[in-house]
Amino acid sequence: MPPYDVYSASCPTRLLLDHIADKWAALILWRVSVQPIRFNQLRREIQGISTKVLSQALKRLERDGLIDRKAFATVPMTVEYSITPLGLTLASKISAISEWAESNIEVVMAAQSRYDSAA
Amino acid sequence: MPPYDVYSASCPTRLLLDHIADKWAALILWRVSVQPIRFNQLRREIQGISTKVLSQALKRLERDGLIDRKAFATVPMTVEYSITPLGLTLASKISAISEWAESNIEVVMAAQSRYDSAA
DNA sequence: TTATGTGGTGACCTCCCGGAAACCACCCTG
DNA sequence: CAGGGTGGTTTCCGGGAGGTCACCACATAA
Prior knowledge:
homodimer
């Protein structure tokens, strides 16, 4: 087996890290891992994301095998996104980052104030 | 206590998530959490990062209270970066993402091939 | 006397991310 | 029939992120 190393610029893991160590990917994976969800519902829940960016992010996550996309020929057509078994193994880890942010934001903001006033 | 929510665009946690759910932040925090390290050594280990981007990222992580910067008046001057107790609680979670990438890259690449050939 | 190492900063330029809006297809409602 | 709403994709264009290069001050090495 080849020695995969995210610290090497040319290693494919670096590109993958760029996909998953990402604000939008974190929010999407977390939400989708809870329950399958449709495009515009997801868009409404992830406040501030544009349709284009959401569409691109979903496509990338689908390509990486982390989420499933099912299109139904209803009118208007509906598309449902769900987590894959592979995606689920990542979702638990990536959602821990968001949860950490929510738990520690006050400590971080205090640190920022200290840093800014020191300057 | 206010209800912090990363899914709200205006919540400060969203900004924090943008700082930490980041390729470079992940690589830096992981490496710095192992052992204190100097600027140029870090730059050499994280292949492909430029001095400018590394400098910016380090400053942001320091401002957020995740890493410590200690400058020594040696000649030439040396600067050492180390992990803070707060940063350590995040480093374990964020390094799990990089490790996941290294462990699952082959499955992901297989998924990508399948996706691309389907098109 | 050059070259190297150290930790950056600033200027310049380029490229790509992402926001806004158009667009498509179709149903419902007035 | 005309207009509005919904779900999802795609085009267009400006701004900001990020790469490259130069530079600083100084000591040691070649």
